[in-house]
């Protein structure tokens, strides 16, 4: 299923309004907005149409209205753009780095999932990430993807590659899957096995996706001290399999709340250099997830423009434009911050959660090394790291290698 990338549909999260726009007019709109990354680029979907100058002005006005931040609590959109649905805690693999509790083998109630999805669609939710456990083990996966398609909500799935064959892939595409994320932490089985299981499953899935010419294949690469220097080889592997995007992700605490594989300062500096080189020479889009905010802030430095890693998009997205639905049907700030709260609707949770309120105000009193870091104002590191390791929900990441080598450079 081909996607026409020359056309866009902009979805405004605050009021659910949709404006259709082609690439020519989109670029004109972007210039009219001063070229600032105010979230418009992050609210793009594909659709064929055309617009005129009057429509550009209408979109600009709608954008300015929609992207207004909540006055209190602060640093948030009026309604989340993104949600993660934890579909199952079942998984046949046993990855050394896994942050999930796989002992109970639960599944998200389909009716609860559909209820939350419809609530989101009616209020401006743009995208859901469907995850596990092993996402492919969820018995009503195709039904849920089809429901997303009917409601106009983009669905992405994160998989290991387990259970994927040509028939399964075709069903995923026909159901309306927007993007497929394959988890792979190394270009060889030996490197991958330090932190992940299922190397052969991942390569098989990538080969099938390449043969199907699927346009939105993404590889999730979690950076550890065992694979950081393998990044250039990962880029080559992605080129070989026709991957559209390679996302570098931050290592997070395991299900036992351990974090022993964070890259060193020297490894992180080399990784940053290799990312910059790859971005300038390869067709594969190289991204760094928002959770890896220290690395994003380091890469975002510019002598002329200042740091472009700014605004609510600069780091941890929990409670700012994203939230999660856990396998028991409860809301949490994100997949890794396991503060469970039961609200009937997304809006009630988004505006009345005490945990989200604390998260939105967490930068008032940053701990070290964040408080003294030169990149502190451009960074909001993964809050789950300090919470799970230190037992405190605050802006502080003692495991941050970027703080170490920025101090050394200074």
Would you kindly provide a written description of the structure presented here, covering whatever features stand out?
This protein has 2 domains: 7-66, no CATH class; 82-352, TIM Barrel, CATH 3.20.20. It has helices spanning 23-32, 53-66, 110-123, 141-151, 166-175, 189-193, 199-211, 231-240, 265-281, 293-299, 346-352, 354-360, 383-390, 401-409, and strands spanning 7-11, 18-22, 44-45, 82-86, 127-131, 154-159, 179-183, 217-223, 245-250, 285-288, 322-325, 331-332. The model is unreliable at 1-9, 11-18, 30-51 and 66-73 (pLDDT under 50). The chain has 410 residues and is α/β, with parallel strands linked by helices. The N and C termini lie far apart (50 Å). The protein has a 9-stranded mixed sheet.
CATH architecture name of the largest domain = Alpha-Beta Barrel
Number of beta-strand segments: 12
And the CATH topology of the largest domain? Answer: TIM Barrel
What summary fits the major beta sheet? 9 strands, mixed
- Round the mean pLDDT to the nearest integer and report it: 82
| Spatial extent as radius of gyration | 20 Å
| Total domains | 2
Shape: globular
Count of DSSP H/I helices: 14
> How are strands sequenced across the largest beta sheet?
10-9-8-7-6-5-4-11-12
Question: Spans with pLDDT under 50 lasting ≥5 residues?
Answer: 1-9, 11-18, 30-51, 66-73
- List the helices and strands in order: EEHEHEHEHEHEHHEHEHEHEEHHHH
- SS-derived structural category: alpha/beta
**Helical residue percent band:** 25-40%
Gist of the model:
With 410 residues, the chain is α/β, with parallel strands linked by helices.
């Amino acid at each position: 299923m081909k996607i026409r990338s020359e056309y866009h549909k902009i979805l405004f999260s605050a009021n659910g309004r949709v404006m259709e726009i082609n690439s020519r007019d989109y670029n004109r709109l972007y210039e009219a907005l001063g070229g600032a990354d105010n979230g418009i680029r992050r609210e793009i979907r594909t659709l064929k149409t055309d617009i005129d100058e009057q429509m550009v002005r209408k979109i600009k006005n709608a954008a300015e209205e929609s992207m207004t931040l909540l006055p209190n609590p602060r640093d948030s959109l009026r309604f989340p753009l993104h949600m993660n649905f934890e579909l199952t805690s079942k998984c046949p693999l046993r990855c050394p780095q896994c942050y999930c509790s796989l002992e109970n083998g639960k599944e998200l109630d389909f009716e609860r999932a559909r209820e939350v999805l419809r609530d989101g669609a009616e209020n401006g939710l743009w995208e859901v990430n469907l995850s596990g456990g092993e996402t492919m083990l969820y018995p009503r996966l195709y039904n849920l993807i089809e429901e997303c398609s009917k409601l106009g909500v983009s669905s992405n799935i994160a998989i290991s590659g387990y259970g994927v064959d040509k028939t399964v892939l075709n069903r995923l595409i026909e159901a309306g899957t927007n993007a497929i994320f394959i988890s792979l932490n190394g270009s060889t089985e030996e490197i991958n096995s330090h932190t992940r299981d299922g190397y052969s499953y991942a390569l098989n899935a990538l080969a099938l996706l390449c043969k199907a010419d699927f346009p939105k294949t993404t590889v999730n690469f979690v950076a550890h001290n065992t694979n950081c220097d393998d990044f250039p080889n990962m880029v080559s592997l992605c080129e070989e399999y026709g991957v559209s995007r390679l996302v570098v992700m931050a290592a997070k605490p395991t299900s036992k709340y351990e974090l022993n594989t964070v890259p060193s300062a020297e490894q992180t500096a080399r990784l940053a250099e290799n990312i910059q080189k790859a971005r300038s020479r390869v067709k594969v889009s190289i991204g760094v997830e928002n959770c890896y905010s220290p690395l994003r802030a380091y890469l975002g430095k510019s002598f002329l423009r200042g740091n472009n890693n700014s605004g609510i998009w600069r780091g941890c997205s929990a409670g700012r434009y994203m939230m999660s639905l856990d396998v028991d049907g409860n809301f949490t700030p994100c997949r890794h911050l396991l503060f469970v709260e039961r609200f009937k609707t997304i809006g009630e949770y988004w505006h009345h959660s005490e945990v989200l309120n604390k998260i939105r105000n967490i930068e008032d009193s940053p701990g070290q090394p964040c408080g003294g870091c030169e990149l502190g104002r451009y960074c909001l590191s993964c809050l789950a790291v300090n919470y799970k390791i230190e037992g405190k929900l605050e802006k502080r990441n003692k495991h941050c290698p970027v703080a170490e080598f920025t101090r050394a450079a200074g």
